[in-house]
Amino acid sequence: MSILLKYTIASGSILVFVSIFFIESLKLPDTAARLPQIVIVLIAILAIAMFIQAFIEHKKATNTNEQVEKENINVKRVFLFGISIALYIFFLDIIGYFILTPIFSFGVFMYLRATNVILAFILSIGFTAFVYAVFNLFLNIPIPMGVLS
Question: Which InterPro entries match (predicted)?
C-alpha cells in the first residue's frame, strides 16, 4: 500500500469521525457547542492539510523518481498502546481521573520513550493539576473521582 493511499485513508477516516461529531454537537446548546465545534473544525483542517502534504510529497517523489522511504509500523507497540488506552477508559470511573491520569500519562511517556523520567513525572503531575484547576475549580465540571469520592 502506498504512503499516499495510507494518508488518504487516514485523513478520510478522520473527516468521517469529525463529521459525525460535528452533527452530534448540533444537538448541544449553542454556548456549549461552540468549543467542540471549533476543535472539530481545526481537526478537519489538519486532516485536509495532512492529505495535501502527502499528495505534494508524492508528486515530488514521482517527479524526481525518488524512492519514498517506507516506515515500518511496530504492530506490537501499537497494539499495546491501544490496550493501555482501553484499560485507561475502563478503569477511569473505578479508580478516578486524578489517580489514574498521572499514572497513565507517565507510563505512556516511558513506553513511547518520549522524554526522560523527571520530565515525564513533571508533565504527568502538571497536566493533571492543570485539568483540576480548569475543570474543578474554575468551571465546576465534575470529573470521575473514583476512590477519592
Answer: DUF1468 (IPR009936)
